[in-house]
Design a protein that fits this description.
This protein has helices at residues 42-47, 90-104, 131-135, 149-169, 188-194, 204-209, 214-231, and strands at 55-57, 77-82, 110-112, 117-119, 138-143, 185-187, 247-249, 251-263, 270-275, 278-284, 292-301, 306-311, 317-322, 326-330, 338-350, 354-356, 367-369, 374-383, 388-391, 397-399, 403-407, 426-435, 442-446, 452-459, 463-472, 475-479, 485-487, 491-493. It is an alpha+beta fold and 494 residues long. The strands form seven sheets. It has a six-stranded mixed beta sheet with strand order 1-4-3-5-2-6, sandwiched between helices. A five-stranded antiparallel beta sheet has the order 13-12-11-8-14, with no helix packed on it. The chain binds zinc ion. Zinc ion (ZN) binds at residues 12-13, 81, 130, 188, 200, 202. InterPro entries: Amidase/PGRP_sf (IPR036505), Amidase_domain (IPR002502), SlpA_C_lactobacillus (IPR024968). It comes from Schleiferilactobacillus harbinensis. GO terms for molecular function: N-acetylmuramoyl-L-alanine amidase activity. Residues 1-20 form the signal peptide.
Length: 494
Amino acid sequence: MHVRKTLVSLACAAALSVAALPLMTHTTPVVGLRHVHAAVSNRDINAQSFANPQITTYPTTFTKYFGYRNGVGRPEGIVIHETANSTSTIDNEVAYMQRAWPTTYAYVHAFVDHSRIINIHPTDYGVWGAGPAANARFIQLELVREHSDEDFAASINNYAYYVAYLLKQYGMGVDLADNDGAGTIWSHNAVSDWLGGTDHTDPIGYFKQWGYDMNQFAALVQQKYDALSDDGGGNNNGNGANPGQPIFDTVANQQSVDLLGVINGTATNGKYYLTDAGFTQAGTSASENGNAYRITQQATTTNGTSMYLMANASGTGQFWVISSIVSTEPRPAAAPAITRNQNVTGTLRLTSSAILHNQPGDGTFLKGLTAGTSWSVYKQATLSDESTWFNLGGNQWVAGNKGTFNQASTPPPATGGGSSVGEGEVTDFRAVAQINYVPNYGVVMWTGAGRVIPGRVLKHGTRWAVFKAKKINGQTYYNLGGDQWLQGKYVIIQ
Ligand SMILES: [Zn+2]
């Protein structure tokens, strides 16, 4: 536990994780390291000849972008944390922090375990991990707890590599601060000792469980740092995430936005992840064509390109695209009141991509509809903000300004038949037909053979049960029983 000098401290930044997670199970046999519950030294770690790990970057959910006290992209060192949670995995920790930071007020740049490094926020910007003094100065990394000598050794190898990698990237040297309050490598404990604003002691106690300490860790960072200097970046070529992928551009500035958008994806436009090195392409936007997302961030790149962070319904960022390929709508907190709601029939042809909403004007997004498609309309609503919305059946609504509405000249029947009747085919169709002609005049009936039935006129406004429908030469006829048919253009089906 992280009981510090005076009080029982809160656990480390990432340690407020759920307690109900299953215990990590250990099916991997311990090989190589023979001692159990004995000290793990740098010599043990090096004896494993671990490969340098890949650095994976997840889109950040931390929307409180702020530069360090010396500016964006100017950290002064790195804080070494451990999660203080013996039952969590790296996936648990990442998911929890990405979801819970608005209430826990804790966010770090990355998590490291025995097999992975997962970055969750650009290291050019500060995070909330160790009190105001450290947050304004340092990159902050969390180590996930391990349960075997070999996994602990691998996790420390990965941790030291990533610390060295970042120190190198930002032109910071290797200098442990724990002993004198100055330097580039700070345990959270050293922050508590020398800078204040926090009282955590990690990772001292956890390291001690493995016979390890900060001095050994700094020495291993120095070794990794020197190796990076020698070979120009080790396995990753100093390139951060997705080695081999070209970097599109870097962030000049970034801000929170709150929009909905449909991607008009093409094979030429990209889909990007934001890594420490910049926007890295991960496929084309064609795979996202027509898909709807929330948009939570807008960034302008160094070369002036505007980018959107596409997020899921709960606001978790998924990937970035160039903003010009996104059709956007505002995302209102609440839908304006409906001032008029009427049944209409017709077709809406979309002139731009649109979002299908649960209710007219609300912030939901069921799916995206692409420009140029046409949809049957059943209702039309007018909202208190004077916007018009069309209902496409069920709880599916589209903003009227996304397309052109053509009202049907003859209302189609309420169920079946009518315009959906195939040419020449007779279908069962039960409804009430009201004669719609000219007041005080009437319409004639026809036989199935196309002859007028003499002596019968059905007056305007009268209502008749119909039983069948058919279409001849594009015109719909309704059957009144027996061999008596009405021309559909003179009736309103009710
Ligand atoms: Zn900590």
